[in-house]
Write a structure and sequence with these properties.
It contains 23 helices and seven strands. By secondary structure, it is mainly α. Strand 6 and strand 7 form a beta hairpin. The termini are far apart.
């Protein structure tokens, strides 16, 4: 350990340092316990993936199924891990939810190693990086979601980790021209192994989240060269400038870009072989691509969800200390690691936008942002009296106040005003919000906002706990009040009973398998996309049942359904096919 690194550790309280190193894993433990104990698996994304894995289990298939039909365009890695766990542990709900949590744990461990590789002389940087990552709202939300991009995140970071090791070794070595041939050969072999590791890690990211993550090595490699400063030289050296530029292109840029292209091709190879064996390989661009597959629940053409990106970056996006540190840092010359992280951020943004998953596809940006923030905070001078958590704490107070007001203002009045403004009803689960979570957020958020620790590390801990507090309050709200709205087991159980009795099941909606795993349905219901299709299917299956969604009052139904319940933000009814008399049948209306 260097003298500078040792002095950093000695300046900190041993208890504070141990607490900061342990806190990210404590945060993850609290979030995982709250999700497993109180929150049910939610539709659409989680239950869509579980339905596909459930039917794969029933049919002994390794190809993901969509409504019972093989679809090799779905990235299969998450499904394979779920199936592998079910083979050992039996079919259950907790193992699929544990898979993204384990992937998130790998991300937290790896981001500390990446920060240390980029800034080996600053031993506080890995601690800050892990705190920033586990303390961002997007990470707290996605950590326990059965969702492909959460699984892809550690592999995306792993590909950058290999590039970071290569770039830092490249910047530090700058081998002289008369270096021994054996030393140069060893460096070339080490570089080849790192490029291979980068490609293999990106390949796993491709199998988890889609082909666009193969762009990260290429874009990050090209971006690293773009952010690299040009070779220096004074006026007296201008005659040799062209020679230096040519030597740099020949000896540095060309091998670097060749390695990036090699890693990208290695990343794309598993997806190509997978599609070639199970479907037309020409559909590689559609592999996990939401733009070319808009039927996926996670990508219904809702590009407006990108506007919510600042919300999922809470609380760091509204933390004055971090922005002040960025302002000060930009006044100085950017270091090699900082410039490389900027290239990583640009690569992840491009790949996330190209994925077509809108907001969910942007999830991996929390990794480069956490690395950049860690570098800023590790050298940020603080003020002795700075109530820096006021703004993030104030936003948490606003959420608590919203929950509190939901118990004071009649939801029917809010729904009427909302319909007048936007011509659409409010989600029905808003009427189930309780008082406990709102009061908890108001009290604890106020106390946290008033604290003013003296060290930067303790201040980061103070702000990082806010998303954990918000998600824990939300999980408690699920346990006490919201679970009946989001738990689809009652509806799915009735569908299972009907299916066992010989009824054919159809769903008049853009159905993505919400009830399949919850009810352990042996056959996927038939999605009916139009009124004409529903009427035609009802005529062909006189002994069947049709599921419909509707808004409004359940007391105004035109007939008595076989079952009535709730599914997330809408009412749901199960009708006998005899009730569907034609395409204009009133039971198919979406508003009563």
């Amino acid at each position: 350990m260097s003298i500078e690194a040792a002095s950093d550790d000695q300046a900190l309280s041993p208890f504070l340092l141990r607490l900061a190193r342990t806190a990210p894993f404590l945060f993850m433990g609290v979030l995982l316990f709250g999700a497993l104990a109180w929150r049910p698996t939610t539709a659409p994304i989680e239950l869509e993936t579980l339905a596909s894995a459930w039917h794969m289990h029933l049919h002994d298939s390794l190809v993901p199924l969509r409504n019972g039909i093989p679809d090799p365009g779905i990235p299969p890695l998450l499904h394979w891990l779920i199936l592998g766990g079910w083979q050992v542990l039996g079919v259950n709900e907790w193992w699929p939810r544990l898979v993204p949590a384990l992937a998130s744990l790998a991300t937290v461990l790896l981001i500390g190693a990446t920060a240390l590789a980029l800034w080996p002389h600053r031993t506080e940087t890995p601690v800050f990086a892990r705190l920033l990552l586990t303390g961002v709202g997007a990470f707290a939300i996605a950590m326990t979601m059965v969702e492909p991009q959460t699984l892809a995140q550690p592999f995306v970071l792993g590909s950058f980790h290999a590039i970071g090791m290569l770039w830092m070794a490249r910047a530090a070595a700058a081998a002289p021209g008369d270096a021994p041939r054996r030393g140069r050969l060893r460096r070339w072999l080490w570089a080849a192994l790192l490029w291979l590791a980068c490609g293999l890690s990106a390949a796993l990211a491709v199998l988890a989240g889609g082909w666009t993550w193969a762009l990260v090595p290429l874009l990050c490699g090209a971006g690293a060269l773009l952010f690299d400063p040009p070779p220096g030289g004074t006026g007296a050296d201008r005659r040799g400038l062209s020679a230096r530029i040519f030597a740099r292109i020949a000896a540095r840029i060309v091998p670097w870009l060749a390695g990036a292209v090699f890693a990208t091709l290695v990343a794309l190879l598993p997806a190509y072989l997978w599609l070639d064996a199970n479907g037309p390989a020409i559909s590689l661009l559609a592999f996990g691509n939401g733009w070319l597959d808009p039927a996926t629940e996670a990508s219904r053409g809702a590009a407006w969800t990108l506007l919510l990106l600042p919300a999922v970056l809470f609380p760091w996006i509204c933390w004055k200390t971090l922005w002040r540190a960025l302002t000060r840092h930009l006044r100085e010359r950017l270091g090699t690691g900082f410039r490389l992280c900027l290239a990583f951020l640009a690569a992840v943004i491009v790949a996330g936008l190209a994925s077509g998953w809108q907001l969910i596809g942007m999830l991996p940006i929390v990794c480069p942002l956490s690395l950049l923030g860690a570098r800023l905070l590790a050298t940020q001078a603080i003020k002795p009296k700075d109530f820096h958590a006021v703004v993030p704490g104030f936003l948490a107070l606003m959420v608590g106040l919203l929950f509190f007001l939901m118990n004071i203002v009649p939801i029917a009045h809010l729904d009427a005003v909302w319909r007048q403004l936007f011509d659409t009803p409010l989600p029905i689960w808003l009427g189930g919000i309780g008082l406990l979570s709102g009061l908890s957020l108001l009290v604890i958020g106020y106390v946290l906002a008033q604290l003013s620790p003296s060290h930067q590390l303790s201040r980061t801990l103070q702000v990082a706990i806010l998303p954990v507090l918000l998600m824990t309050s939300l999980n408690l709200e699920f346990h006490g009040n919201l679970r009946p709205f989001f738990d689809l087991t009652p509806v799915a159980g009735r569908l299972k009973a009907l299916q066992d009795a010989g009824f054919s099941i159809g769903v008049y909606a853009d159905y993505r398998g919400e009830f399949d795993f919850a009810g352990r349905l042996a056959v996927a219901p038939t999605p009916l996309g139009s009124r004409a299709a529903a009427a035609r299917w009802a005529a062909e299956h006189p002994g069947g049942a049709i599921v419909t969604y509707f808004d409004g009052s359940p007391l105004r139904l035109p007939a008595l359904p076989m079952f009535r319940g709730v599914a997330r933000d809408r009412w749901v009814a199960i009708w006998p096919t005899s009730a569907v008399t034609g395409a204009d049948s009133p039971v198919l209306n979406g508003q009563f």
